[in-house]
């Protein structure tokens, strides 16, 4: 259950209602709950929206499929079922393979991922771990596959998803039902539990 009020159309100004809620409903069928939560603070809602749009337009150095699985991995490690739900829906709409998400819990051994994807996922795990476990040796292995611009983009996207997932998790926002049935390759709770098992076993 959300730990913050979810603003409705009748509780926000016309600009928020038309530009944010209206546009979100047209794009995603319904207004995402993080947006309803952010509407409690219009200034930060605007700042966040502008930032997300800018990142969407600027983050073009990495392969879209790699970006998708890295962000999805961070969401599962943090334990944000809302992010897992929403991210799976975006992958479906983009034509990306969501079936690989099932393999993320064992990505190190899985043949579903390339060498560069595996090292990117390892880097994402190291950045998301508490405390962080990024080492010089790991960064050197990442740099064997990615140039400096790609390394920075990867780092930025992992950090950004950590912020999203931890914010949603802290506010009690859970899966909103963007995907259902066969659309999601593994139930949200199972994906999150698999990531936690990997973390506690020392693989993250």
Question: How would you portray this structure in words?
Answer:
- Helix 6 packs across helix 8 (148-170).
- Mean pLDDT is 87; it is low at 181-188.
- The protein contains nine helices and no strands.
- The radius of gyration is 17 Å and the shape is elongated.
- By secondary structure, the chain is mainly α.
- The protein starts with 13 loop residues before the first helix and ends with a helix.
- The protein folds into two domains: 1-58, no CATH class; 61-200, Up-down Bundle (AhpD-like), CATH 1.20.1290.
- 61% of the residues lie in helices and 0% in strands.
- The protein has helices at 14-28, 33-38, 42-58, 64-78, 81-93, 115-128, 136-143, 148-170, 188-200.
Task: Please give the structural blueprint.
Elements lengths: L13 H15 L4 H6 L3 H17 L5 H15 L2 H13 L21 H14 L7 H8 L4 H23 L17 H13 L4
Care to give the gist of this entry?
By secondary structure, the protein is mostly helical.
Brief descriptors of the model:
204 residues, mainly alpha, AhpD-like, 9 helices, elongated
Q: What's the pLDDT, averaged over the residues?
A: 87
The helix content is: 55-70%
Q: H/E order of the elements?
A: HHHHHHHHH
Number of helices: 9
CATH fourth-tier homologous superfamily of the largest domain = AhpD-like
State the oligomer. single chain
Q: What structural category characterises the helix and strand content?
A: mainly alpha
**CATH fold field value of the largest domain:** AhpD-like
